[in-house]
Specification:
Elements (H helix, E strand, L loop, with lengths): L6 E4 L12 E3 L2 H10 L2 E4 L11 H8 L17 H12 L7 H7 L4 H9 L6 H11 L9
Parallel strand pairs: 1-2, 1-3
Helix pairs in contact: 3-5, 4-5
Amino acid sequence: MDDWDTVTKIGSKTTGGASQRETVVRGKAALNAAQRSGNIIGTEKKFATGNPASKSAVEGQRLTKVDRSDDIVPVQKVNPEIGAAIRDRRSKDPYKMTQSDLAKKVNAQANDIKTLESGQAIKNQALLNKVARILKISPKTGKP
């Protein structure tokens, strides 16, 4: 029998059959002895071991780590000047419409337009672009 027929398997047990049984090596010393003897060594890592009930404690290790830095980044809000420009433009004669009319044209809710005009809205560039296109103003400056 040459070296291609013998396999030293580390970390798992196999049931014997008619062929030669694979040897399971435990420990660093036995691994080094197998390497010195010139045998072919295959390593397999077991992932599904232990009690399934205890897996929930280990599952947190596989999840992405949350950044625990102290700095809190403020949410970007719409510039109040742009909100005032939207309100003024919407109430002027060629574009005269209510907040709910404008909301229907841009496929949004009236409350979204209200918060956008007050400057309290979280910056939603898609909504801002739609409103700017309807009122023919710049979405960055609020000017016509």
